[in-house]
């Protein structure tokens, strides 16, 4: 289940929405309680004209019809005409109420008026049936009082409903209650008027009628007494004045007269007298009631306005408060987001820039005490975020301490590796020096070949030791003080590869590489060439070419192996252009890290691309800062018309010892200073300035084809199958200068001369094509040839006579090829006679090769003579 990610703004907005959602119902409820009441109060005057007047007119008409009805029941003949007039007035008032009052209730009515309206309309609907009952004589006075009392009460409640909502104002509520009492007093007085008028018309009263009249008169007096204290001052004064008036006194006197008349006795009050007194009081009382209602409406307007103002103010404050809440929340949210952003940027800066730079510096060898990571920053205003920043600072410190500890551990491991590699390097240098001495002293071809093999293995071990030093961050000890030609550097790199016979080096530009970069360039090219040879078929050549470019010198190493995928090649190119930190767990790509380190150290651009042959092509771009041009120098390594480039199609070495020392083998066994595959001598190597290059070894059986994978192109060669060794054909030097023995001192000073192919076999003159290599036995008899020990006996003699026309072996003239300054300098006496001296190992090897070639040519004659001598000895015996 995934957790939804929400921003701080979203969460703050959610809080605001929750707050707004909680306050809105409360605000709405408050508005519901105040605003409708205020609007109701403000509409009291409108309701008075639209509802109050029609309801009051209807109530007066119903009271008049009630009086006319009970008078009609008392005297049908006298009460007929007044009843009809009263009914017509009631119908008119009822129609007006249905037209205006009902609409007013719907428009500006109150809740109370909405409840009363159905009851009042229902009573009006019964009015017709009540009249029919009266006309038919089926209705009694009590029925009349009951029906009209209910209808008048409904109209009275409709009239009072317009002031039922007072907005919570106590004054308005008091005035409304007083108006209600006045209206009810008038209604009760109308009932007294109806009962007295019926009694006067009948001339006498029954006991029940007298009791009901007494109750009605008492209710009128009670309503007057309770209405005065609650009336507004002005209305109270008017009401008191009415009660104390002469008209009210006359009316009360007539009431007492009628009430005090005993049942069955004749009533002495005349109808006209009562009607005049009642009409005068009713008129003043009705006017006082209407004035009180108008006054109440006028008093309600300011109250309604105040209520609306208070509601508006409350609403405004609510909106202002909500707006302030929104603003404060937004500001707080922005502050939190700003602080979070600052903290996040600080963390990102530390995680992506500061800490990696610190770790990179520590891994580069910087002292941890001299490096400081800017931990901490400005204090944050939010305590929780500041605590979080402090926790992150502590994490940074722990990370820095861990990185420093790891760096110290890596540096310790690197120092151990460098120390071991230095020791191995010193031992390998001593081993190479010892092998060099043994090679110089050896005259046995098989022993010399084994020594060359050991020499080559030691050279490879030295390169692996230097690789370990490079991976550990150190610098190999080899170095050159003077520039070295590119061809010599490439050849030296080729000699450090076990399958060097498969490598073909084409003509290269006549550029020199500065001495300080020679060792690194040799190592870099050797790694690339070795990987190209290891991860390509055993019979496929590896081609090395070079051209000048606008940005330096380009050397391309191309194989015919299995290509790699574009993703793998892009990954390798990225690692070559920006070498990562060496990972001890990835021990299968040591060459990749070494090449990357060397390229980054010298500013060399190395890239891989697909070869047209299906393999991989490594392009090395040497920058101009590593190059020095040789003005007027010929292109080094340019082949003659009768030669082929170094590493041309190979020739396998014969297994027969007698056949090992062929003409090509003579050149392969040349002194290391003239071998084409010898490397430039470092500054600390004594002697002739070169390590002896490994000889061409006998071809071993070809091993099964390796599983070549493009992704392993830079794998460590330690596990590779390198059992196939093929002897390359080495050509003579192209410049035609003398070969061996033509001045060793001059060749030490010329790095290019050290790698040129020999022209001859030692200090003997160069033989012409077709010349005989047969030894001159007379020279041996004269003792001019030094003893070279026991030579290997020839095998597989051929029964062939020697050619008598074959030229003799060339004669060597002592010091003929030495530099002028060195001639005659030996033994400290330039004029001394040339005494026989011991030959150098180089000269011994060259002489031995020439002698064995002569033996190979004279072998048939020697065998024939041996056979003849043996036969003659047998005959003599």
Highlighted features:
single chain, 877 residues, mainly alpha, five-stranded mixed β-sheet, three-stranded antiparallel β-sheet, 22 helices, HATPase_dom, protein histidine kinase activity, EC 2.7.13.3, histidine kinase, kinase
Task: Characterise the protein shown here.
The protein is mainly α and 877 residues long. Among the domains are: 43-165; 478-759, 2-Layer Sandwich (Heat Shock Protein 90), CATH 3.30.565.10; 769-782 and 803-812 and 840-877. Helices cover 59% and strands 4% of the residues. The strands form 2 sheets. It has a 5-stranded mixed sheet with strand order 2-4-5-7-6. It has a 3-stranded antiparallel sheet with strand order 1-3-8. Strand 4 and strand 5 (552-558) form a beta hairpin. Helix 4 (111-136) packs antiparallel against helix 5 (141-161) and helix 8 (233-243) runs antiparallel to helix 10 (271-363). It is rod-shaped. 37% of the residues are buried.
CATH topology name of the domain at 478-759: Heat Shock Protein 90
Strand content: under 5%
Q: Report how far apart the termini are.
A: 112 Å
Find the structural class using helix and strand composition: mainly alpha
What's the gyration radius in Å? 67 Å
